[in-house]
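Hi Y.,

Following your request, here is the sequence exactly as I used it, all 178 residues.
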Amino acid sequence: MAKVYIMSGLPFSGKSTLSKSLSKYLDIPRISFDETWLEIEKERGSIPGSDAIEQWRYVCKVCEDKTKQYLENGTSVVYDNLGSSKKHREEIKELASESKAESKIIYVDVSKDEVTKRREKNLNTKERHQVSDENFDTALKQFEPPSEGETYLAYNPNEEVSDWLDREFGNRSKLERE
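Below is the corresponding structure, written out as tokens. Let me know if you'd prefer a different format.
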């Protein structure tokens, strides 16, 4: 049965890095909000919408449509977005259910202090796109980590990604992983 792996964590927590490793490890596609945003900007020149909220919704919809298409074709997928609210995670879980697929939340457990340090470092290194002060502060204030009642796997970046992947996914056959 197809499965969507829903990434969840603060900006600069390492979600994209982990999602790329997970996608490669399981040999499944990855849908990235950030990359989709950049692709749309490149193709169209700008993101449709009259304000930042409408633009965010537009890109989310594109990502959700791609995810649904994979799931309906029986292909598992990694969904790399903030997964910042229980409501949004539930929406993706519902999308999976409607597509006769399963879902699993992957929570990247990094403190607010640590993501703030990583963001400050990125101001100098520019290793990835920068998040505005306003959006970063909003994300820190509004983030809801997975809670009781939500089934999830937690990843702590103090652990080697390969060790975590082997522990969480290595003892399963390819069919069970997908």
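The domain at 3-167 is CATH 3.40.50.300 (Rossmann fold).

Thanks again,
Q.
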